[in-house]
Amino acid sequence: MMFLKDRVPHARRVAGWLAAALLLAGLQWLGEALVVFLGWPLPGSLPGLLMLLGLLALRGGVPRGLDEVTTPLLRHLMLFLIPSVAAVGLYGHLLWQHAALFALAATLVTAVTIAVTGWTLHRLMRGRQP
Amino acid sequence: MSTAVTWTVATLAAYAAALWLYRRSGHHLLCLPVLTGTALVLVALALAGTAYPVYAEATDLLRWLTGPAIIALAVPLYRQAALLRRMALPLLGALLAGCLASVLGTLLLAQGLGSPLPFALSIAPKAATMPIAMAAAERAGGLPAVAALAVVATGVLGTLLAGPVLRALRLDDATTRSFALGLVAHAIGTARALQTHPDSVAFAALAMGLNGVSTALVIALLARWL
Prior knowledge:
The structure holds two protein chains of two kinds.
Chain A: H1 10-38, H2 45-59, H3 64-75, H4 77-85, H5 92-97, H6 99-125
Helix pairs in contact in A: 1-2, 1-3
Chain B: H1 2-24, H2 33-48, H3 52-58, H4 60-64, H5 66-72, H6 74-79, H7 81-86, H8 88-113, H9 117-123, H10 130-139, H11 144-168, H12 174-196, H13 201-225
Helix pairs in contact in B: 1-2, 8-9, 8-12, 8-13, 9-11, 10-11, 10-13, 11-12, 12-13
């Protein structure tokens, strides 16, 4: 809708999307291979994220195709998570068994985290313009 | 093959319905599409008498897309990088302090309560954005679904607690509030910062991205040593 006045030929835009999709898939594959190779208990997409960050910094901007592919991917992230969250049905008893930890972590640890973050940022920013 | 199509379409339909409900409710926190969408899927699974492992295998493609979506987070993070360059020391200092407080605080609490390590490791990444928290928990030997619930609970409570806690400590300026919201309450807190402090929402977005990355790194390091 917002690209109606667009002058870039359609084929070039589609090529931009394809390139962006291939880049994301390639980084996912590379990141996965890297964590397996190094034996780190890290999700493979995380090195992928850092590599993309590095590529963007080297290039000095976000290519249009990448922007147009990542925007819907990020907007509907929750869709991709539903199949994994649905496993919660298997762990009902476990959650109930450790409800105290769950509740205290969500309240107490969260409040402490807010306090620690706020205090540290406030101290370190003293005398600086925000 | 046909089960894959059926359950992928069913999940898409559940998500569409959840998204509609979320918009109708005026973006109410308890109507987050991931919660209502999952509830609908669980109802459908129960009605169809389908076991979870069958459903999980059928929705392989949707689950795989989480990876590229995490990588895509580099784009918004890159757009906030100028902010980070200007105030690297205070922002990274606060990031490190907040990230460690959240992860170590949860693990210490778990040890105090005598909870098993896999469960503790599932809750420990709770301040990170959901896809990263779930992936980090899974790789560390935890349960991604439990991580997802801890992420939602922390996001909602962190958004509610940020104002009162910072006010009580007299730290309540817009920059601090936004950064703390993004760090502890990820996308939910960032959405709140956008409503209440639109001028400083970049701090929330930056804190969310940075804490996602650093939480995953800290959990991975700890999982190797514990």
